Amino acid sequence: MARRGYIFTNKAESKKGILSTFLGTLSLAGLAAAIYLTFIHQGEAFVKYGVAGVLCLFFSAAGLALGILARLEEDKFYFFAWTGILLNALALAGIVFILYAGVHGL
Question: Could you tell me the pTM of the whole model?
């Protein structure tokens, strides 16, 4: 009897990992939109772009925490957990770079 490659498991994706990926995507999209709109206005950053950046900071911090918690769960698939961690870390790195560039005048 030939094996067909079926694997029966009760594992599922973590809801925290999916939410982490969603928050990371939202943070990166919001940050990219704020950067693009600032670029369109010749570098004049309005207050609403700063507020969007702060919201992206909170979303990415919460998403990173959720991604780490999702990764710590047992008997789950970890694709969305790792994706959420990566996206939120990229968003946080982008925010840190923007702050660093603003302080040092890059």
Answer: 0.87
pLDDT, mean over the chain: 92
> Are 77 and 23 in contact, with CB atoms under 8 Å apart?
no
Count of alpha carbons within 13 angstroms of residue 68, beta-carbon side: 7
Please check the confidence at residue 21 and state whether its pLDDT lies above 70.
Answer: yes
- What are the φ/ψ torsions at residue 79 (nearest 5 degrees)? -60, -50
User: What is the sign of the dihedral through the CA atoms of 73, 76, 80 and 83?
Assistant: positive
CA atoms lying within 13 Å on the CB side of residue 95? 25
Cβ-contact 20, 85 below 8 angstroms: yes
Give DSSP secondary structure letters for the chain: -----------EE-HHHHHHHHHHHHHHHHHHHHHHHHHHTTT---HHHHHHHHHHHHHHHHHHHHHHHHHH-SSEE-HHHHHHHHHHHHHHHHHHHHHHHHHHT-
